[in-house]
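Write out this protein's structure.
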Amino acid sequence: MAAVSTAVARTPVARTPTAALAGQRRSVAARALPQTSTRGDPVQLASAVARLDAHVARIGGADLYAATEDATAAVDVMVRSKNIGGTLEECLARSDGVWEVCVMPHMLRLSAPLGITFRPVRYSLKDGKIRSDVRFRLPGGIVRGWLSSSGSVKATARSDHDGAAIDLVFERFWIDLDDGDVPKDFVECVSAVDKAVDAVGKAGFLPSFAFFPVHFFDAKSGTCVFEFPPLRSNIAAKRVGDVEETLKF
């Protein structure tokens, strides 16, 4: 379980010691309470959430390949709001459930031209644990199945980021070449191939892939928007249900 900045030249302005100290205090306060920002027009934000909900309902579920310009624009409104409805810890406490991605620009750009699909992209969260299950299909369906991983999710320990963010620590990786509706669990992976897949996954999961700024969270509508920084891609996911008791992380 994807912001372009433009440099602007500014004329240096001399500060009095008092002004400089006040600026430092504001900066410290911003870092201390970054998780509760509610910027943006509430009416516009509510409209964006409703538009995304309507989009998902219209296409019959979360499908990143069906993302429209309007759905992506609605996600952009949420990103700009930086509204997660409370502290990050409160958001994590309310995030248990099954989430599926409905907008994921970088995955769409990279996979669609190759005829590869990843659908659904699913994250199951419960009690600080996370499991990712992604069904894949190569062109012609010659190879298809599930890519899975599991681990933990928590508020980031990084000090170089001003804003809400999480760290994902994936500890197990596996593949299921049966693309049925229910992917297999890690405990079923006992072959040498399974062990190799796990080893490759651990080696390829870089620290830069584990850090995700959270730009929007609304438990009531079941909507979350977070960023994949390496590709500056904002990802929107919708809560689609509860985690089944039989699911193994």
